[in-house]
User: Fold these one by one.
Assistant:
Number 1:
Amino acid sequence: MRLRNIIIVTVIVPLFLILLVFSLVAIKSLEDNVRTKLQSEVQIISHAIGTSLGYALERDTPDALQESLHSAFSFHRIYGAYVFDTQGDKIYGLGLGEELFDAEDIRAVVEAEEPTGDYRQHERWNYYSALVPLTTPGGEIRGVLQVNRLNTGIENYTGFISIVAVVVFAVGAAGIVLMIWWGFRHYIERPLNRLLGVMERVEKGDRSQRAAIDGPTEYRKLSLALNGMLDAMAEKDADIEARQRKEIELEKRLRKSKKLAELGVLAAGVAHEIGAPLTVINGQAQRLARREVIGDDERAKLGRIRSEVERIVVIVRQLMELGRQHNVEKECCRLDELIAAAIDLLEDELERLGSRVEVDLPTPAPQLTVNGQQLTQVFTNLMHNALQANPGGQIRVSAETLNGELHIKVEDDGPGIGEADKSRVFDPFFTTKPVGQGSGLGLSMVHRIINDHGGTVGVFDSALGGAGFELTFPADDPTPTQGAQPT
């Protein structure tokens, strides 16, 4: 059953029944009071003129009898007065209602010697008539006085009052029902329907729905509670989603680290095996170049051989560095000093290419518990890549602390990195540079070092128009550590 019907059945209907019973009782009480007053007035009038009529009957003076009866009509609503003898025969009378009582009724009053009264109807009029025995001063009953008072006006009055009461009750009941219906619909049903609508839309998946904070106090409290519950659910969902994203990212990073570690071990093994032959080739080429029997052209070719061998040796060293176990000895370092050290290492190249480095760090500069030498190598590799991507361009290094983590960005205004290459940019030997301008191991080394420090590194499209690399470190790791981080 709907709430509106429950309220009508349990509150409105009983209230109206109580009001109806109360109204009927009030009307009945009013009618009884009016009749009692009427009876009392008629009896008082009858006793008032009965004494003088008793004297008139004893003295047998018709004039006094008539005068006394005439005095009865000076009272309000007295429409008839009659004097009967003890046998019921009329002696004298005036007005209406003579036939209300018969002789038998008159004789019964004489025998009972007690006044009486009754409501009687004659023709279309209703009367209240009182019969009073007329006693002489000596105590002898000489006749009976009948006084008639018209009751029709009183009945009409009480009837009118009843009709007015019924009309007022009906109009009042209709008005109350209408006001209750309007109030219920405006202040209860509509707000509840709005809340229900919000809940239904949330149930269908629209978690952004919120209830409007308006209306009565109870509804506002209910809306605030509902919105608070939805906010808590949204916050919990966002937290779960963030954890899932972080777990997925961690899983990707672990797979990437495992893959790089395997490649590093393989590359280190290969590098170790080809290192010795390269040394022999370089030594033999050096000896041949010292002989005087060869010409300048052959000597130049031997120099070219040695140059390429040395380049291979550099690559071999990088491969062995990538594959060997790292000892990460951490210390507290200022970020601005690490970046300045990297810029110093690249100072000649920066001046030669005409590139500029913009450093944007918070004040005071953040501090990191890291291996300073390895972090300097990270910044050197990233800025060196930026120089190669756009010689003479702009490099920007910035940092900020968010949610307990230090985020460092190295960006350039070069051509950027394509979406297809972003997932492979940290793979060993992957490079988009021309042949001979890069070994494809610099970013792999960056990934390795950041991973050894418990951080993360990612690539994004920079607002400068080129590529951007973001390094993330836990900001609350102040304790210097010493130990191996096996790969």
Number 2:
Amino acid sequence: MKKRLWGRALSFILGLMVLVSATGCEKRTEKDIRPEKDDKIVVGFSLGTLMEDRWIRDRDIFISKAEQEGIEVIVNNANKDSDLQYEQVKTMLSQGIDVLVIAPNDSVSEAKCVKAAKEEKVPVISYDRLVSNSNVDVYISFDNHQVGQIMAEYLTENVPRGGYIILGGSENDSNSKMLYEGAMSVLQPFIDKGDIEILDQTWIDGWIRESAYDFMREELKSYKDRVKAVICGNDSLAWGVIDALSEAQIAEQVQVTGQDADLVACQRIVTGKQALTVYKPIKDLVEKTVEVCIALKNGDEIQSDGYIDDGNYKIPYIYIGVQAVTKDNIDETVIKDGFHLYEDVYQTE
């Protein structure tokens, strides 16, 4: 009887030891995991669209660079829907992001995305498109004023006299206005002298190629014999313009400029259908943005190149330099940088 009692007591003690040991192991495991999870930076990357080639490139390079830095990235594409972008941002905030990087679909509407992030004390980087009236922590983009200057300098050198048409991007995109101002800073003296006449100008809502084509086709009914140069907000708009010029059989008589160095634009340049694009090194933009994400998470001071007015606030502005791309230097720019492959640009395969 005594042996059975001792046996039961011993079994109870051993069971209790196992239970305590198991509980202790579970607590150690939680304690070991938590610091690693808390230290990892989680960035929400909200894109207004992926319809243009360049935004796909932005996304892919951003994910790759962030992974190299040990940063977790949550990416959403709003597909040009501001309401959807707002809902996506709210979801990312609920997932515990540390920094929001936003390329807004609409510079005005997406202020509510920034407001939602601020309420959660999450810092915001406005990525290549400035969110208006929202007081983001920093705006990182290219020198969009310089983009317009480069286009106009090339055209005034090669087409110093004649009729010009300007197709800007979306009017609600601050980049469109900076490009326009940059172009006009070069064109205005020629206009004042009477050497250049702006035949017409417009904004293309949504940066839609088909809208650029429709606009240009209508313009050619009045200005087919007078237009000598066209400044376009990007390469997609240039594509629509060149299609309209080709239909009118005057594409080779009109100089057209764009930006982004899209592959099809580079192909048009080497075949002489487009005069110039502006190469914007996305890799440099992404690297700077990831660097600032880490700084914001750590509470470090942000070093900016200047400030930009978002309508209500002066926003720290970091900008990346850009470069003209023509048939003469395409090998030494986008191809040398690996932005596009030689065989893709020249379609040698």
Number 3:
Amino acid sequence: MAQPAPSSEQAITPRHVAIIMDGNGRWARQRNRPRTFGHAEGVEALRRTVEAAGELGVEYLTVFGFSTENWRRPVEEVNALFDLLRLYVARDLDKLMREGVRVRVIGGREGLQRDIAGIIESAEARTRNNTKLNLTIAFNYGGQDEIVRAARRVAADVAAGKLNSADLDSGKFESYLDTQDLPAADLLVRTSGEFRLSNFMLWQSAYAELVFLDVLWPDFGKDALSQAIEIYRGRERRYGGTAPESA
């Protein structure tokens, strides 16, 4: 997950786009409908966005589906979110297979209903060899929780003599994260006009370009993703260094 050095040749398209899908509840409230209606429309936006990401040349798309803090929501809403994951996989897994999309789910598996855990394992296994687009769904995920779980695994390996603490650096630590096989995020998009990371990909977004769009997630699609990428293209990425032309 190491960051590249500054280059005069900026990547035209971000390799890894991460999205905080926010605004389902507000979208539903504007229409006097229950929050679950907004979540259902959010699934349609996810379908559009996965398709658009492939068309726009994005290699890695990571979306925030259910956070470790979402357990505080009413039970009915939590159950509805789980139902939508079931529905999305049931309806779309064959299509994702045909289109070469590899599916990963990051986050803690504890607390998940048994069938949900089975659905996740099945989706990951079926799509393991796909390479066109890498779709990662952060589910029961929190950035701080991910880092703590990684630190526990590091401590366990040190205690077991499998790892010398003197050999631990940022690259080694990344191998203990849920995203060990993913590149760092280049572009992080949040919808709904909010300006927070909300505990999403805290480590992986260290040098990501942040784009906040005033569009509610159910209205998101190819046009909004293209807009975010255009904003990204206008940014100068220096990774703590200086711009090549001014060095």
